[in-house]
Specification:
By secondary structure, the chain is α/β, with parallel strands linked by helices. Helix content is 44%, strand content 18%. The protein has a 5-stranded mixed beta sheet. Helix 5 (200-226) packs across helix 6.
Length: 499
């Protein structure tokens, strides 16, 4: 296809020769050899070329020639018949990374322009080597010249340049850690800002302490009945519950006991709840008004943080953890991958759609090619939540980050495809395809972070209010009943009648 072979055949005019351009559209595919007249030559006039002759235009039409293609799809039972459908699906597809679909779109431009077809050979990975030296994956297929074009891009390291021909560079391979940073309030889970300032253990301890306070006040009242000098009328248990709730709400105690121990207990309860109340309100205010939120800003800080790490389920991530050759990969494996995880946690290897809800909740970090996660974030995150996203450069920052569109070494299609892609780039076709597949990070449109009150929290507040009103009414009825009963006993006492 890219030959410069010229032949001269003598024509009917004596001394005049027809000059032909000789080429083949796939000699390795057992295809015919073609000759195209480019001009005439004679000893007197020299060579006379055909007007507007272009080798590129003559050879650009492949006439439905079937080429061999290879791509990477990390899925089982994928045949060559379904490769076109999988690579042509919009959005993310399981087992196919974003830059594979991008280079497939460039291959479609070449296919439609040069009028050829492709029979694909899917592989599970990009590279690999057996102990015998046999190359595996896409690179092995390309190196052995078992394909004509690779329908994917690869990182063109220096060691690969003697084995492959690159015809186009445009895709920036950008991996990174992405996580959502939030203030302390509501950072553990979403939609429970009412209880977020305290951890669950603090709430449990507080409830147990309040229950113990009711028991202590009730027990002190029972002890006073046995004492002849400081006798105090016992009340219903709900009355002491009301005293404790009044201390919690800092609204005063409706019934002040005459016993010194009971008064000390109520005073301690008031002070303790005052401290907790001030800490609660200060935590809420500081969380809602925090303007600067600090989080991990480097790979070591991400590894040392409490964020739970997950990686997208791709071949290069599994190789990363298996070989551990990149900087920080060994430390990340020991600190983040080895510790066991509960079934409710996000697994170590996951897909983007499953990981985004965990990212939105907070406390998780995902290492991926960033352009893959941005569409799902734009669909599921609110404007203010997008402003809380933070990214840290990924583990592949030390490698070349521009992907190469490759062919086998000394391929006969290299020059022709390179010219076609250059013209597609000049006309804006490559830029349009790049914008479709290379999704940018959603723009932060929120001016400040505001935590709105959820409906569940409002309902909880009204439930607590209703329970308080019901308890006060119940206590009033109980006290009224006891007062009527005590008055009846005093009127019927025979000693009091004699007196």
């Amino acid at each position: 296809m890219n030959s410069d072979l010229i032949t001269a055949v003598e024509s009917a005019d004596r001394g005049v020769f027809n000059v032909f351009d000789i080429y083949s559209k796939g000699r390795h595919l057992c295809k015919d050899i073609y000759q195209t007249l480019v001009g005439k030559w004679s000893n007197e006039s020299g060579i006379r070329l055909t007007a507007n002759y272009s080798t590129y235009q003559i050879r650009q039409n492949f006439n439905f020639l079937q080429l061999r293609g290879v791509t990477v799809i990390d899925r089982e039972n994928v045949t060559s018949e379904v490769v076109d459908r999988l690579l042509g699906e919009p959005g993310l597809t399981k087992g196919i990374v974003a830059f594979v679909k991008y280079h497939y779109a460039l291959l479609v431009v070449l296919r439609d322009y040069h009028n050829f077809t492709i029979k694909y050979r899917p592989t599970r990975g990009w590279a690999g080597r057996l102990r015998s030296g046999y190359r595996l994956g896409l690179l092995g297929v390309v190196q052995r010249h078992e394909t004509d074009v690779a329908a994917t891009g690869i990182i063109m390291r220096l060691s690969r340049q003697p084995e492959l021909d690159s015809i186009h560079y445009s895709w920036a391979f950008e991996t990174g850690f992405i996580y959502k940073i939030t203030p302390d309030i509501g950072s553990k889970s979403e939609g429970n800002g009412f209880v977020a300032p305290f951890s669950p253990s603090v709430w449990v301890t507080l409830l147990l302490s309040l229950a113990l306070s009711v028991v202590v006040l009730k027990y002190l009242a029972l002890l006073s009945v046995r004492c002849p000098y400081h006798r105090e009328r016992t009340r219903a248990t709900m009355a002491y519950v009301l005293d404790v709730l009044s201390c919690v709400a800092q609204q005063g105690v409706p019934h002040v006991s005459r016993l010194v121990p009971a008064r000390v207990a109520v005073m301690v309860l008031l002070v303790a709840n005052l401290v907790l109340y001030n800490y609660y309100t200060s935590t809420v205010v500081s969380g809602l008004l925090s303007s600067k939120m600090i989080g991990p800003e480097s790979i070591p800080q991400v590894i040392d943080s409490s964020l739970k790490l997950s990686l997208t389920d791709t071949g290069y991530h599994r190789i990363l953890l298996r070989e551990q050759t990149l900087p920080y990969s060994t430390r990340m494996y020991e600190r983040k991958a080895l510790p066991p995880r509960s079934p409710d946690d996000l697994p170590l290897f996951t897909d983007v759609e499953h990981a985004v809800p965990y990212l939105r909740r907070g406390g998780h970090v995902l290492h991926c090619e960033l352009t893959e996660v941005y569409p799902a974030i734009a669909n599921q995150f609110t404007a203010n939540e997008i402003c809380e996203l933070r990214t840290v450069e990924g583990l592949y920052k030390y490698d070349i980050r521009v992907m190469a569109f490759v062919l086998p070494k000394h391929s006969m299609y290299s020059e022709l495809f390179k010219i076609t892609l250059m013209r597609a780039q000049e006309t804006g076709i490559v830029k349009r395809i790049y914008r479709i597949h290379k999704i940018a990070k959603p723009i932060c449109q929120g001016s400040a972070t505001v935590y709105s009150v959820e409906l569940t929290e409002v309902s909880l507040a009204f439930i607590i209010l209703g329970v308080g009103i019901a308890l006060s009414g119940l206590i009033y009825l109980v006290e009224k009943r006891e007062s009527v009963r005590g008055r009846t006993i005093r009127l019927g006492d025979p000693l009091r009648r004699e007196y």
